[in-house]
Amino acid sequence: MNKDNKLLHFTLGPVQGFVSQARRTRDLWSGSFLLSYLSGQAMRAVLDGGGKVIFPEVGDQPSITDPLLAAIMGHPLSGNENPQTGSLPNRFKAEVPDDFDPKRCRDAVQSRWQEIADVVWERYVVLVAGHGKGTKEIWERQVESFWEMGWVLGEDPGDRSDQRWLDLRKNWRTHHPPAEPGDKCTLMGSWQEISGYVRARECKSQEEFWDALRRKSGELNLGEHERLCAIALIKRLFPGVAEDAIGWKLEAGTWPSTPYMAAVPWIEEAYEKPEAKEYLCILEEGDRLSWAFGEYNTKLPCLEKAGRFARLDGNLFHKTALDNERAMPELSAQKREKLLDVLSKLNRAVGHPASPFYALLLMDGDRLGSLLQHDQIDPKDVSRALARFTEGVDEIVGEHCGRTVYAGGDDVLALLPLDRALSAAEKLRERFLKSFDAVLGGRRPKGEDGEPLRTTISAGLVFAHYNTTLRSVMREAHRLLDEVAKDRNGRDSLAASVLTGSGRTVEWVSGWEESPGGPLITRHLQNLASSFDEQFAGRFFYNVRERFGVLTGEDDHTLIPGLDAEKLLVAEYLKNREREGDREAAEAVIEQLLKVCRERRGGEPANEKTLNVSGAMLVRFLATKGRGVER
Amino acid sequence: MRYYLLEPLDTLFFRDGSPFNAGETGQMEVLGTFPPSPTTVVGALRAAFARRLGWQYGDWSEDIKKKLGDGADLGPLRFSGPYVAKDGEPLFPVPLHLLRSGRTLVFLRPGEAALSTDIGEGRLPEISTRTKGLKPLEKAYLTRRGMEKALRGEIPDPEDVFEASELWSGENRVGIQRDPDSHTTREDALYQTTHVRLKKGVALAAGVEGYDGEAPGLLTLGGESRMANLKPCELSLPEAPSLEPGGGGLRYTATLITPARIRDEGWRKPGGALPGLPGRVVSACVGKPVLIGGWDTEKKKPLPLEPYLPPGSTWFMEAEAAEPDEVEEMHTRHIGDKREWGYGQILIGGWR
Questions:
Q1: Which chain B residues are within 8 Å of A225, Cβ to Cβ?
Q2: Alpha helical stretches, state H, A324-420
Q3: What are B305's strand-pairing partners?
Q4: A493-500/A457-465 β-pairing
Q5: CB atoms A174 and B119 under 8 Å
Q6: pTM of the model
Q7: What is the mean pLDDT of each run of 10 residues along chain A (631 residues)?
Q8: How far is A180 from chain B (nearest CA, A)?
Q9: Shortest distance, CA B67 to any CA of chain A (angstroms)
């Protein structure tokens, strides 16, 4: 480092307050992308000011290696000219010239954000604003005061303690949003909706304002009951004006809805059946139902060959949604009946209906801060390993027929079909470990426990019913990752839960490996899920929960001393099988089942004295895929 | 000041600020908050006092207004709290400069070296140990004894710390709206709320000055007209340590125990000032703002949702050596907006 240079640590937020408050999957993606894009503006200010970004690894000028930052700098990478995924984290470390003023970063973010807001305003809101009550004032107040930015600048202390600067700064929270009067946004509940009317007294004027804006932006962009603040509206509408706002097109229309993502495994099995063609014919005959082909191309690799059937609106794959007149009001009663009839036939041909559950996966490297502060690890190696990890995320998620919402730094957020989520999590972890192995190789210093320092990652995996609000699914994913996997289970762990409309029904956590260096626990889960048929799984696991829940303590999962859980479970298994199965096969299954029912902290072997029935309940859920038997 | 315990007879429900309109899908989930804001508790107490004074419905009579004020004007009334109480003893939000990992508790203190930051040049709070996993106790409470130790700059005993989960739990409720004529459920009228159920012996407590009437007994508290029993109690706030001026002047901490709205900017920068408190801000541990709103019954519109500094926020102050009395005088006083409602109550402590 040049001795006249200084170190700058910069952060932009709120992350969860902006990204997680989403109603649709594309809101999640759009929020992550915008945040990442704006963080890139702050990085650009550093580069333009003669500085260098040290963390994350983004390459040097003129050969920037991060696709998003390269596009922001006006020199997009060939083959990725229009980056579609956020890849830049919301905090970074840079080396800047002595006279660099960090306000340049703040100003760059704010002015770019203002420009994006202006494009959305001009395209959609300006003509309607006159019908509102103070709409422009509300818009300006919110756009101006939303982002929270902080930085610390100083000379290199030489002992890595600068890695803590932003954490120290965060002990003193100084950003306060403005006071927000009136009715609040239906997406971001602490901001005023921009019509400015109060529903209790001025319901009609409020409806008129939003109807007008809905006509302007399209029903698909603004739902029937949605009344948004400036921030949520920008998040929702900016993909449509991206070319003007940021200089390249964003493919917002390719985002699969949650009912669609839930139906993916079923679509794969269904699209070639004659009934699928019959189903399509009904939708295509007579009046054109443009909404019916709402998911015009979700670009999911596993559905490439499924043609027009895979372009149907996600609701059309689920009987309960099709049954609900309010979900598809345009459908005539006659057509609905015909569709329901063919859908039943199609379900019979496939052997089962589509599952209503999809998966949301959130992953995050463990103790990255300590790693960066470790005196025997070069922080550049950490950046390099993370860049290598991030590079591979989208491919892995794609191979599992999912969509990457965000992949940058040590974070991943992805939507996946239920049946491939565990495998995707496992592969992403493998990629993370290999990335660090490739960079650190045999040069791993010893940690505080005297063992070679481990670089691990934890995951929160939510299996959510497609009707659950995305906000609660995101909240659950963060809770699983931060509180359950990291804090409670000591990191290097995977926590999973099942979320239905009425709340959480299963919560399970385990270290990734059966014992240190042993087989992956996710494999056992997947093997078990495929070894139980739906009907048997329902019956057997209920009995397990009923009978075995009482054999452990109330608050922990310690088994009553001297109890042989394996023998009891084998007996239960055989009893349920009604003499169909042989004892040896039963013992093999139960042995595997017990592996997912033991308490196991990250990086440690299982505690053999425990039995946590939630592991069995997760297997049951995976085996039945939550189809109609989830309670 | 006379203190009262508000003992719930059932679960309680205090809504957060998110929209909650009938018939809107995606809006069916409403999160609850706890403890409630001073405004909510003051509202419940005033309504209960007014009932005791003979009010049934409609506008208050002039006689009641003289005793209880009118709308935003509290007349002769002054409130403090609400506090969370356990077995009749008050608990206080843990100062945010106290961190915990397992059973280890550690204080953050202003760092030795000043750093250049977006809020100016200042000494940010840091810890001297390398203990892993230290986190602020944002959802925890201290007993009076624990708080007195913390104010003296001593580490409280782990037994004096109560996690929120030891004091109350959330309870999801699913509700439907019924059509009174057909006795069937209405379309699209399913909703979910999160109530709180206080653990045995846990209650809210509040102080009242200026009302000499009898305690009204039962009152409704929060959403869905849940009932609580109001009864007089004895309650003592923690005592302040005696402050000793040192070489650099008088160093003290100011910790909020109820939310505060402070309009001037001093709280957010090194070298700034806090209203009514002598000296300058050296450093601070301040949490994310809490948003407090409500409903204006008269004008039939929401009250503005305003950001407040959260309880537990602590400032490290430095004043002239000659001012200990002036500082100690501020112990348990209120600063910022709506002080008479109970907002902005502070405790004074020491730091070195």
A1: 21, 23-27
A2: 333-350, 368-373, 379-399
A3: A180
A4: parallel
A5: yes
A6: 0.93
A7: 88 93 92 97 97 93 93 94 95 96 98 98 96 97 98 94 93 96 92 95 95 90 91 95 95 89 97 95 80 77 92 93 83 91 96 96 93 88 95 96 95 97 98 95 81 92 94 94 94 96 89 94 94 77 78 72 82 75 84 92 91 91 77 34
A8: 5
A9: 30
